[in-house]
Amino acid sequence: MEQTISIPTPAAPDFSIYGLVMHSDPVVKGVLVLLLLASVACWAIIIEKTFRLMVLKRQLRWLREAESGQGSPRSTKGLVRAILLAAAEEAKEPHARDESRLELRARLEQAMRGALKTEFQRIEVGLPFLATVGSAAPFVGLFGTVWGIVNSFTSIAQQKDTSLAVVAPGIAEALIATALGLAAAIPAVVAYNQVAVSLGRASAKANASIAEIAKQLSRPQTRPVLQSAAE
Predict the structure, then answer these.
(1) CB within 8 A of 71, min separation 6: which ones?
(2) In sequence order, what are the residues at sequence separation of 6 or more whose Cβ sits closer than 8 angstroms to the Cβ of residue 116?
(3) What is the pLDDT of residues 124-152, one digit of tens each?
(4) pTM (2 decimals)?
(5) CA distances from 13 to 5, 10, 88, 173 (A)
(6) b/e map of 76-95 (b: 16 or more CB within 10 Å)?
(7) Of 116, 137, 113, nearest to 191 (Cα)?
(8) CA–CA dist 183, 57 (Å, integer)
(9) What are the φ and ψ backbone dihedral angles of 93, each rounded to 5 degrees?
């Protein structure tokens, strides 16, 4: 009897995104990992800023209530408490006996604006990272693409085969880096612009409320009411 010998057929190449990534150059893999980590960090910052802006919007509403001395116990938290405490502490500072009401108002307003600036600086933490990723990620992805294409052309020269079946996989591997760079940059840029605009509007509203609160605090008859809201 003749014995037949079966020759195993070579496995078909994996042209999925996962397969292309796993067969890419180590430098390209490093670029992809870096961009993936940057994208995850950006989304974490975006989610955190979304929550912080929601809280800030509610606190601005409470701050407007404090303009008329109607701040409730629930409103004496976070931004509102920091602003009112700054005003209360500044009102306790010794000052000249001949200080006018306008001078007292200016002191209180300056103290509250300083507290507002400090609170906004806490909210702005992470925004520089979004700006950096938004501007640099496309170029990092482009670097990975250029590196991958160079390696692809080198492989073509070594195999001495310019057919599309040889050229396409290497170029596809390289282009994944550009795609991931754009995927990381676009949400970062959009989120940065949105958060920056929202903080600018919130700052304008808060400064308007601070001016009114300072005006109220400079009146002796209304000062104890607003001071009690900060306690």
Answers:
(1) 62, 65, 80, 84, 226, 229
(2) 79, 82, 83, 203, 206, 207, 210
(3) 888 999 999 999 999 998 988 888 888 77
(4) 0.74
(5) 24, 9, 72, 13
(6) beebbbbbbbbbbebbeeee
(7) 137
(8) 29
(9) -65, 140
